[in-house]
Each structure stands twice: as C-alpha cells, then as structure tokens.
C-alpha cells in the first residue's frame, strides 16, 4: 500500500487536478451539444449520464463515449428513425450494451455519491456513516431518477418501471460502492493521510478515482443484468419494433 501511495501522490496536486477536470468539463459540454445534434439518437437517460460521467472520468470518459455510444458516421444520417436505426445497430454488440449500462449506472449513482460525500465531509461523518449515507443517496437518486426513467422508455408502466428500476439499481449499486469504498478506506488515507475535505484537490481527484474503480467493479454485474434482461444497455430495439409493427399494420390495412 505504501508503494501505491507513493505512486498516486500526484493526484492531490493542482497540476493534475485542474487539467483533469478542465478536460472533463469541456468534454461534458461537447457531449451535451453532440447528443442533441449529430448523436441525437443516444438514449435520453444516457444524454444525462454521459456528461456527468465525463466530468469525473475526464479523457477516459470521452474515450469511452466515442467507443461505446457514438457511431463515427452518425452525423451522416437524417434525424429521427434513420439515426435511431444506425445507433441501435452500432450498439448491438454485448460489450457496448454493458459499458453503456455501467455508464448509466455510475453516472446516475456518481452524482448522488459525490453530493453525499460533500455533505458527509462537511458534517464530520465517520467512515461508515459516510459510506452508508453515500450508498443511500446514490441508490435513491439512481433508482427514482435514472433507472425508472430508462424502464419507462422500454414500455413499462410507472409501478413496473419503479420496481424494475429499483431491482436493477440494487445490484448495480452494491458493486459501485464496493469499488468506491475500497478507494475511500484503503487508498485515499494512504496517500493523503485522512479523508480530504471538499475544498481540496484530493477530494475531487480521489472521488473520481473511487467512481472509476466502482465502474470497473460494476462491469461484471452489469454484464449479468444485461444478459438476463434486467437492464438494456443502449439502443432502441423496443421503439423500432413498435415502428415496424405499425408499418406492417398500415401495409395490411
């Protein structure tokens, strides 16, 4: 752990933290613009989650977005159904769906986790008080805002969407917080000596590191959730199926 601590001391320095978040904020702003123009077929919840994720993951987040959720030729397609079909075809590989699912999870959860972390540090919580507070806030925000929203877009009624969203979020959040907790408990104190406050560079850089490790930890869980149909990743299979059925009905009318 001492060796790891020595390797990561740079993360608490302004020369690392400022460029990291500057790239993250600029990347998030570009993704917001891109997702409403060239890449407008991006699933609505991911339009919200990718910018959040990129703020914390910086250049890593931008690279993930380009590799997973943005076909390079999407700007050549007409808005509406043509873009939806191109995006859905691009998102078809399982690994892209799983990364999209994990990005949706960590983007939504991460906003709640970091918000709770700010409050917990200012209020002087102990480690375990902070851990469970972050878990609760991240889970509730991810469940009722992001997961329920996604489930509604797949044709579920409100009660069913709340149930399915909470079920998926429960399993995803466990693994995100395992990664986050490991960084908080072992790595951050080893590098900076104590849990940093929100007015320090270390707070934001090690918070981002915790979310990144949580993203890695939750990937296998999201693979399983997508495989059994409890999460959907990305794409518009449900909406395109309805459109195709309507076209068939009109053709036979």
UniProtKB/TrEMBL annotation:
TM regions (residue ranges)? 15-36, 48-68, 131-150, 170-188, 200-221
- Alphabetical UniProt keywords: Membrane, Transmembrane, Transmembrane helix
Q: Which residues form the DUF4396 domain?
A: 94-231
Claim: Transmembrane is one of the keywords in the record: yes
Name the source's superkingdom: Bacteria
- Identify the InterPro entries for this entry: DUF4396
Q: What protein does this entry describe?
A: DUF4396 domain-containing protein
